[in-house]
Design goal:
InterPro entries: Innate_Immune_Apopt_Reg, TRAFD1-XIAF1_Znf, Znf_RING/FYVE/PHD, Znf_TRAF
Number of helices: 5
Strand order of the largest sheet: 1-2
GO molecular function: zinc ion binding
Helix content: 25-40%
Distance between the termini: 36 Å
Keywords: Metal-binding, Zinc, Zinc-finger
Zinc finger (TRAF-type): 23-70
Protein name: TRAF-type domain-containing protein
Order of helices and strands: EEHEEHEEHEEHEEH
Length: 150
């Protein structure tokens, strides 16, 4: 007697219908489909997969590199423009609480006279999350939100 099976849209595997709901919930929680190769990858391994499986030759203008400000991977050919705009965002100096352009923050920290932050002035904000491109809608999505987005 043949067992009734269903195809999981997320991982593309055939699953017994009796276990399909449980399998699908597990897939959606723990797997993400790589936007480049369309393979299901454990969420915890996505960043490593992206870097090891899709890295191109160092000379190639289309090789993946990360922005020094937000660590977003992108084609090398687009890095200069992206880092110019990304570096235009501001973040408060942890010493003086003045908002400083990200591209100038390292230099400012060296030059800052180490004044302690005054109460009531800006709070420290974290750097933007690393994002990846969704091939379905062509939007940049934070890596940790990509599975939910899909």
């Amino acid at each position: 007697m043949e067992e009734d099976v269903q195809g999981c849209e997320h991982c593309k595997r055939s699953v017994a219908s009796a276990h399909f709901t449980l399998h699908e919930a597990h897939c959606l929680r723990f797997l993400v489909v790589c936007p480049d190769c369309k393979e299901p990858i454990p969420k915890s391994e996505m960043e490593e997969h992206f870097e090891t499986s899709h890295k191109e030759a160092e000379e190639c203008q289309m090789r993946q590199v990360k922005c020094k400000f937000c660590e977003l991977p992108m084609n090398f050919s687009k890095l200069g423009t992206h880092e110019y705009h990304c570096g235009s965002k501001t973040e408060p100096c942890p010493n003086c609480s003045h908002y400083i352009l990200l591209r100038e923050l390292a230099h400012h920290r060296d030059a800052c006279q180490g004044k302690q932050a005054q109460p009531g002035r800006g709070k420290r904000i974290s750097a933007p999350l690393r994002k990846i491109n969704c091939n379905s809608c062509n939007q940049m999505i934070p890596v940790n939100e990509y599975p939910h987005h899909m």
